[in-house]
Structure formats: structure tokens, C-alpha cells
Amino acid sequence: MKGGDPVGDQRTETLPEYMIRVRRDIHRHPETAWTEYRTTALVARELEKWGYQVLLAEEVLDLESRSALPAPGQLELAEMRAREEGVDPELMRRMAGGKTGVVGILQRSQGPVAALRVDMDALEVTESAGPDHRPAQQGFASCHEGICHACGHDVHTAVGLGVARILAEDQSWQGTVKLIFQPGEEGMRGARAMTERGIVDDVHDFFSLHVGIRALETGEIVTGCDGFLATSKLDAVFHGATAHAGICPQEGKSALLAAAASCIGMQGIPRHGDGNSRINIGGISAGGNSRNVVPDYGIVKFETRGGSTGINRYMEAEARRTARGRR
């Protein structure tokens, strides 16, 4: 199983050296949700090397449950890039069409199943090229324009592989471990497709991780973090009627004004008394570049969060009601 192949010799490098090397390789080759072809191939190759049962594509995904899949043209461009970067053609055939993600299983005996889940996707963010930015200084900044690992998922993937190596080399434990490398964490796009496929149905103990949430100093580890919030990501689309703003403005219905009014309304949603509740407007756009045209299309990108699923559902319902202009 061939994937992106970071240079290194595992026979001589220490575990920290291995994890740093892999993390920097992944950081240099970031991939967004459902296009993590090279990253999936790299992880699969490493897991297979250490004796894990490796599951891919439909084995780990319910394809109908994937959310916000990129357009076919975007997927094809990402697949072409992955092939150019050395991903095995047969593996690419299996993953084509946004079937990324991998699960590694190592069983030593009958008994409880423990799982560790990490995420792999990057963000559509341009990485800094500044002289004080370490990846730029040391030559592992993103080589994919407009994409970078700005949320630490490259670190998470490297940690997952570090755990995989430790467990493969340690013969003292019993039971079964599942290492879950999830695609599309950003925007809540990937988890449901994996859970609907049943990959955690037999899991007794489930672990996850994130860098920089509570542990803010190098070498610091915090266990049992709380305060994570349930969330929904939504787009509100507005349709109006275009018109010339100078000649016949009375015929227009501005989608931009409707979108702007919804933003103000959503920010005014009463917060919930039973726990944390939040809403954020991440972006608003409408119309084109003409100052004299009433825009007939607008979109608001927003998210809700809650200290419980119930609180988040309240925030989402109120946001939907407000966006629809209902009192």
C-alpha cells in the first residue's frame, strides 16, 4: 500500500523524531474535507506496516451520510494532485469521489474495545509566509495554495500514528484497539458518515484529543477536558428580485437587506438559562459588484452552539425562525 512517503528511517529514529517528521510532512501537504487522499494513504500505509487490519472507503463510511461533499470538479482536481504526489493508483481508485478516512484495528485477545479518534482535514486558509512563522522558516509550510493546517489536525494525525506505533511494539496489553482517522471534522462533515457505518458500535472506551484547548504550554497534557459544546453549522440563503436601483427600484427586493436583517435578528436571540448558548455569523455575501443593481441573492453562513444537545437545538430553531422572518 503506497502513499505519500515522508523521508525517514524508522529503524533508527526515536518516537518523537518519527512523529515530528510525519507531522511536518502532513503539514506541508494539507487537504480539506473529503479530499484527504494523500493523508489517508500515508496513514493506511503506516498502519499496515505495523500489522493493523486497515479499513478504508465504504468499509468505514456510510456514503449517503457524508455532508457537504465538494463538487465533482473539485474532487477530481484533488485526486489528480494526490496522484502527482505519489498515492498508489489502486488506492486512489478505492478512495475516488471523496471516500477518505481510515480505521486501523489491532486485536490481541477477546475483551473490551478501546478507540482513539483523530481528525485529518485542513482549512481553506492561506498559511503565513512571515519570517517568524516556523513552518516557513524550516521549510514545511503548505505547498497547497489557499489550504493549511491551522487547527492542529496534522498534529492529531501524527499523534494517532505515534499511538499506533507504541501499541504495535508493546506486547503487554490485551484486548482490541481501534484507531479512527476521521475525514472532514471541520464543518461537522465526517463524523456522522463513520458512526452511521457502525465503526464505534462495539467500542467500550472512546478517546479523542485536541491540541491547544486547555494545554497551552509545550509538554503539558490535560485529561478530562470539559466545556465542549454541541454545534450546528448552517447556511441561510435569501432570494429576492433584481432591479435597476436608479430606474425602477420599486421592482426590486433586496436579498442583501434581508440577509443583513437576519444577522441582526439572530444576534438578538435570547441566550438559554440552563447553560452555555452561542451563535456566530461567520460570513455574509450577496449580489455582485454593481452598485446600481438590487441584489436578488444572498447567503449567511452561521453556527450555533450549546452546552447540551437540547440547548443547541433551541439556538438552531430560533436561528432558523429568525432567518425565515418569523416572530
UniProtKB/TrEMBL annotation:
Domain of life: Bacteria
Molecular function GO terms recorded: dipeptidase activity; metal ion binding; para-aminobenzoyl-glutamate hydrolase activity
GO terms for cellular component: cytoplasm
List of residues binding Mn(2+): 151, 153, 186, 210
Keyword terms of this UniProt record: Hydrolase, Manganese, Metal-binding
GO biological process, one term: folic acid catabolic process
Cofactor: Mn(2+)
InterPro entries: Amidohydrolase (IPR017439), Bact_exopeptidase_dim_dom (IPR036264), Peptidase_M20 (IPR002933), Peptidase_M20/M20A_hydrolases (IPR052030), Peptidase_M20_dimer (IPR011650)
Cofactor-binding details, from the entry: The Mn(2+) ion enhances activity.
One Pfam family this sequence matches: M20_dimer
Residue ranges of every copy of the Peptidase M20 dimerisation domain listed in the record: 237-305
PANTHER family tied to this protein: PEPTIDASE M20 (PTHR30575), PEPTIDASE M20 DIMERISATION DOMAIN-CONTAINING PROTEIN (PTHR30575:SF3)
Protein name: Amidohydrolase
